[in-house]
Amino acid sequence: VCAMSININFVRTVRKKSNHNMTKLIFKYGVLSVFLISLFFYVYTIYSGSREDSGVKEFSQDFRQWFSGKKSSFVSDNWTEKTGEVNSESCLVMEYADTDIDTTRLFPTLKFQAKWIGTKGWWNQKFEERYAKAKSNWLYNPLKVIVVPHSHNDPGWLKTYELYYHAQTSHILNNMVEKLKQHKNMTFIWTEISFFSKWWNSAHPLERKLIKKFIQEGRFEIASGGWVMTDEATVHLYSMVNQYLDGHQWVKHHLNVVPKSSWSVDPFGHGGAVPYLLSRSGIKQMVIQRIHYAWKKWLAEYKADHFQWRQSWDVRGKHDVLCHNLPYDIYSIKHSCGPFPDECLAFDFRKVTNEYSEASIRSVPITDENVKQKAETLIEQYGRTGSLFAHNVVLVPLGDDFRYDRKTEWDQQYLNYIKLFDYINSHQKELKAEVRFGTLSTYFEEVGKRMKDFPTLQGDFFPYSDIFSEGRPAYWTGYYTTRPYYKALSRELEAALRKTEILYTFAISFARRHSLNKTVQMMENYFESLVKARENMNLFQHHDAITGTSKSFVMEDYGLKMFEALQTSQKIQVEAIQTLIRKPNMVAEEQTGEQQEDNHVFLLQDFDQDAYDKLPIKLPVIVKKDLTRHIVIFNCHAQDRQHVVSFIVQTPQVDVLDSEGNRVHFQINPVWNDTIQGMIVTHSEFEVIVVADFPALSIVTFTVVHVEKDFRSHLAVIYSNNVNLKDQRPIVFQIEEVLRGDIQLENTKIKLLFDGDTGLLKAITKKENGRRILCQMKFGAYRSSPGHSGAYLFKPDSTEELDLLQGKPPRIFITSGTVLSELSVIYGSFIMFSLRIYHVAGPLSEGIQTDTIVNYPVVPNFRETELFMRFVTDIKNGPPGVVFTDQSGLHMVKRKQSPSLGIEGNYYPITAAAYIEDDVSRLNLFVSHAHGAAVWPSGILEVMLERRTMFDDVRGVGEGVVDQKRTHSKFWLLLEERGSKGVEFSRLSLLGNYLMNGLNYPPLVLVADEVDFSNMEKHVRFLNRPFPCDVFLLTLRTLSDLNYYQLPSSSALMILYRQGYSCDYYCSVAHCDLGSGGGLHKDTTFNHIKLETLVETSLTGLKSLKTLSSLNDIEISPMELRSYNMTFLQRLPTS
């Protein structure tokens, strides 16, 4: 009880007058505390005397709910609340998979400074001798070469998606149809469905027919089948799955194709999430390209460029994918035929009028006179590549960026190569080689004939570094953070679209079942817009989009597309919720036999966003004596959740009631106005912050009413060193000055210590055991190396760090009330950060909510400045340092410091979480969008926040990064104590998953316009009981109709992800039942809609695996994703 009072203490030396006031305050609260504690133990004694131990736990929970001002009225009568307990007895331990290659362990041991780097290639005499030995054995193991024509089409980079399509891509696909028809043994592969679907929509029926013919003949292959060739470092799980899902659904519907192979040759490093998603989608073979130059050498040296890529937690290897790493630098013809680029240039036969390149100068057409010499030279290159593999089968890409956009190139490449092929194949006795055109499937089929057993590999290929450009290492670790505003916007869209998909599925199924024909028609009309929103989000997952590595005007185009998708999502959300909460007009139904529908829009978003590049602004809710307002909240999680909901009102004289009419626990904070004289508390706006529990997948309505009194107990107390109190109008808040000395915030779980001069965090104490860890917060910057640090690359100019806060006096504000305490610090207009703790019982009280807003001043200020946020702790995670980072939100990966590399080589991508730990503690940092995270020797957790590089880094984009925007980054800090130390696969804790999920997918908040709410349901639940709290509902999205792709079907795809949790960190999460086994709770059903069929499918829904009778049959192992095609009953049964 004492700890729930205002918990702000200033550790300082105070004057006698202050001591006197403090003594009075302590006496006053002390007497109250003694009385309340005595009352508690009196009631406890009476109550516990007639109860078993389990009853005491129930009483304690009821007491906490009473203290927070509410009962758990949202939980249904037929469901018993439980608390998720993690301990050594209840937890399922998962061990690391045993593989031949572990990239985490091996990477720091690779040779990064080898002598061959200056030559830009790793081929040496040792490889030449191996080739000679392999060639002598060609009689028994002949060389087989599959040449794969391809064209790499970026859906945005130096031009926008549309400009690329009209200028080049449409011509490539038109030419492909014509030339594959003409050249009967030529082949082609295609990856980007975003482009292919656009072309298909305008293609002639005869062209469509030919495409299907080429597919049946095996001459045209859809590789990967994703909407884009996704980035693998900065894309989060939902978006990555979504772009595969939309691509696969499209090719299945239009081409009747299920992709078998993956082609991912341009992402800047390769992550472990992609092979798992491919495996779950039915793809068991893949090709990658861009990995660290030291890995290129190592894999070639050990003949390991073919490997079974295994997940670190997949002990049995059931999700292995056969991966082929193309052994040379990039996918161009120059770098594909063999280890000598100058030789390969002679075999790029593209010659276009007024176009000059290395290849057009070097290559000459193949004639009867030179075919023998050219064929033998080419076989030498192919043979060297074949010597890298035991099977001696070679995959040779034949293409480059936007190749084959001219008809002449199709003829040039085909006619010259076919002469070479004919010569080689007709001289097999002498050359002992066979060459032909083929696809990826052709290649893997040939490999499978010769070899069955491959080495196993776990881990990933980050960071990526090249040497072929300058003959020295260049680390592609800057793009993990480049243009963070766009990365954050993408995640805002992801969260909004996920909510929209779920609500749309429930709304259209509900409307169909209840014969709401106008609503059905409206929702069907919205489906095309929903599909377009999906596509816009998918497009941004492209490896030159979310990475921030396109030209600035192209990035603006992406931003506009995402903003359009965001607005579409918000509009559909409103219509869906209005459908789901509106009560049927029973009188009209009895008279007409049909339900009356009112499609008037009465729900509004609680914020306004003028443009894609502006942060949203909260809109005030007008509450008057005669005007009651309603706040409609959607919990998009399939578990009961504790959420924070905030909104703006124009008067502090308000009360907030839940759907049962009970007062909820809330706090009223000031809204500030920044002036030249200092910060002023506005008199016309106030922030209401509510913390409440929400049932799983539910819509709950809060009522905001005007009150004349009893509102002051909800007002926060303000402490600041920069408040202008000269305004003559009365201020409702109590405002005090911050006295000198350190600052302390605390709740019942943790205690935070801040530096009183800087406002930066210094230490965290866990109150349960009194353990205190050093946790010094710092904002600093690296000075970029001009020309070597840019959109892609990260390279500091020196080891010296910039202190951007030095000499800048901070403005410090402390806001404290019964719900939360928050410290906010402003350094000029450049950076603002805040740390918040909650005083309510529940999971949120365990962590520290942290926000930063970074606003770089205009150019030329902050030239070559790369800003980071760092926490320096006494956690002993090194040396060498070890940091765990997430892999696209799927699982955590161990990162070991490579001491021989600079900081640029010790940066890794995170999209959701990172942590450091030792034998005692773990410090977690959860993030709302992608960042780069550093691996330092020991005790340091660092993420990059923003980058400005004035110069191009010579990787193709042709400009620096100077278009910074005001960016809001959201975090949670969580300090945990280790309960045991096992050898398990490292995972987030159950509590960590809880906070991460809430950060990524907050509730939807809508404000009802002035409308009669008596005709609305104030509480709608879509589940009769929650899912187990480690089973995350990734999506529930309506599928397209089988006959009319632009219309919604009666089926939806539900994708569940069972997030494994650590057994080493004991914790308990309220309203969380882990269940038993790997399924859902018994008799779990949906409310308001009814399942007709339930079929487990592959990840993207293309392959049916087994039919289930009900949700009871669902089984999911930890760390796994599972997909289910659900068909809903269309009409209520009639009597």
UniProtKB/TrEMBL annotation:
Keywords: Glycosidase, Hydrolase, Membrane, Metal-binding, Transmembrane, Transmembrane helix, Zinc. It catalyses: N(4)-{beta-D-GlcNAc-(1->2)-alpha-D-Man-(1->3)-[alpha-D-Man-(1->3)-[alpha-D-Man-(1->6)]-alpha-D-Man-(1->6)]-beta-D-Man-(1->4)-beta-D-GlcNAc-(1->4)-beta-D-GlcNAc}-L-asparaginyl-[protein] + 2 H2O = 2 alpha-D-mannopyranose + an N(4)-{beta-D-GlcNAc-(1->2)-alpha-D-Man-(1->3)-[alpha-D-Man-(1->6)]-beta-D-Man-(1->4)-beta-D-GlcNAc-(1->4)-beta-D-GlcNAc}-L-asparaginyl-[protein]. The keyword Hydrolase applies. Its cofactor is Zn(2+). It is an enzyme of class 3 (hydrolase). GO terms for biological process: mannose metabolic process; N-glycan processing. One of its GO terms (cellular component) is Golgi membrane. Its EC number is 3.2.1.-. Homodimer; disulfide-linked. The keyword Thylakoid does not apply. GO terms for molecular function: carbohydrate binding; mannosyl-oligosaccharide 1,3-1,6-alpha-mannosidase activity; metal ion binding. It comes from Argulus foliaceus. It holds the Pfam family Glyco_hydro_38C. The chain crosses the membrane at residues 25-47. Binds 1 zinc ion per subunit. This is Alpha-mannosidase. The lineage of its organism: Eukaryota, Metazoa, Ecdysozoa, Arthropoda, Crustacea. Catalyzes the first committed step in the biosynthesis of complex N-glycans. It controls conversion of high mannose to complex N-glycans; the final hydrolytic step in the N-glycan maturation pathway. Residues 474-562 form the Glycoside hydrolase family 38 central domain. Belongs to the glycosyl hydrolase 38 family.
